[in-house]
Amino acid sequence: MVLTKAFPILERLLQNTKLFHTSRTSKEYDGPGKTTVDIINKQDNVETHNRFLITKCLPVGFKLNDNSLLLGPIVIFDGTILSWNISSAKDINEATLSLFTIVHPALDLIVLGLETNYKYNRVLEIKKVLLKYNIRSEILPVRQACGVYNFLVSDGRYVAAGLIPPLPDKTNLYCRLQQLPTKKRKLIDK
Prior knowledge:
The relative contact order is 0.14. The radius of gyration is 27 Å and the shape is elongated. The model is unreliable at 45-49 (pLDDT under 50). The protein is built from 6 helices and 8 strands; from the N terminus they run H-H-E-E-E-E-E-H-E-H-E-H-E-H. The longest helix has 13 residues, at 120-132. The protein has helices spanning 2-6, 8-17, 98-102, 120-132, 142-154, 173-179, and strands at residues 54-58, 61-64, 69-71, 74-77, 80-83, 109-114, 137-141, 159-163. By secondary structure, the chain is of the alpha/beta class.
């Protein structure tokens, strides 16, 4: 009481806070079985400053900056990650690149990360498909493509990446251990 009498402004604020209240109103059905459609480009991304970055390329998939592990080939753009239904760069064609052609607004650049080095003719075939739709692209080995994608996203560019996990490295200790022949041990009874 003494505090409110000494500070009339505080007293008015306390009186006005009694007038505010919140209530939840819902105009639509939110029960099970409701069909919803999300347009990816229209979603409000609350964490626009926290974009997905690729921290590690593994033969099984990719590790992101939020410590999630994504298995298999992926397409990543503007805070959205999709599974890409291909097994290698040999499967990349106009149909598998069609996702990049319908994204609106148009992408600044597409970074394609291939699992291994391919001959220049194969890279040209992929570039021709993308040029048909006026899409700029950069086609690199996947480890380099992840770095380029991270750099461009950090720079604030509107880019997408199609990434295929790298082939297992034969110099990796784990791979060498799997290839060692198993020796049968002889048990000697004494």
